[in-house]
Amino acid sequence: MGLLNVNIDHVATIRQARRTDEPDPVWAAMQCELAGANGITVHLRKDRRHINDRDVRLLKDTVACKFNLEIGMDPEVIKIAETLCPDQVTLVPESRAELTTEGGLDCAGQLERLTETVKRMHQKGILVSTFILPQEQHILATAESGADAVELHTGQYTNAAGDAHIVKHLNALRDGRDAAMAAGLIVHAGHGLTYRNIHPVARIEHLCEFNIGHSIVSRAVLVGMRRAVEQMNKLIRQPL
Ligand code: PXP
After folding, report:
1. Ligand 1 site: residues with CB under 6 angstroms?
2. Of 201, 112, 111, nearest to 153 (Cα)?
């Protein structure tokens, strides 16, 4: 059964809409944890469009469950991760123009840089995961880099229209899981997962962690963070 990490970036997005101090993602993290989240995920982007340095500092000090920090392979942000020492770093591609993380990390194309980053994180005792499309070359490159895990990008599945496409992308996730496990990697999944589309993914065995953000924060606006997290946790634990 997979565990739920709640991505609270969009709590900070609401705060930044007014450049004020509420809602505080640190308070949100506490609510997620009280509701049974296994981990808290935030993305410290280079442009600090939502989560900022103060947030990651306070989250590091207050989150008692797993703290998963998403970062691009940018020298300044890598240094921050090294100093902060979250439980886990998830390496993601990052571009300024995107609304959210688009595509997966090109692990095969930047193996040297990836290996160096993994080495630096491991020296600080930080687990490393790479956010990738479920493609063999990136899975193998992740394993070669010495990283611990892959997060399979579920976006192609969540965007798929029509049964044939949905089945195709679920199969790609299963194949990706098999290849990753054969390479000795732990397998996570995330992106675009919602209360409506989580079931088939939650039924895929050996996906250890789900990182889910937008859908949970959206529901939390209407029902409260604790109920939103509890409802998603239930769907992951007892998929239809
Ligand atoms: N996993 C990764 C690596 C991400 O970058 C994101 C988005 O920040 C998510 C999961 C969560 O995606 P969503 O907000 O669509 O649930």
Report:
1. 7, 9, 43, 70, 90, 92, 100-101, 131, 151, 190-193, 211-215
2. 201
Residue 153 is among the residues annotated as catalytic for this protein: no
Per-residue model confidence as pLDDT tens digits over 103-139 = 899 999 999 999 999 999 999 999 999 999 999 999 9
The tokens describing 220, both together, are: 């939390």
**What CATH number should be reported for the domain holding residue 164?**
3.20.20.70
- Cα 183 to middle of ligand 1, angstroms: 24
Number of domains in the chain: 1
Q: Which domain holds residue 8?
A: 3-237
pLDDT confidence of residue 212: 98
Task: Give the integer Cα–Cα distance in Å for 151 and 209.
Answer: 8
Mutate to test the pocket of ligand 1, among 3, 88, 91, 101 (most ligand atoms within 8 A of CB): 101
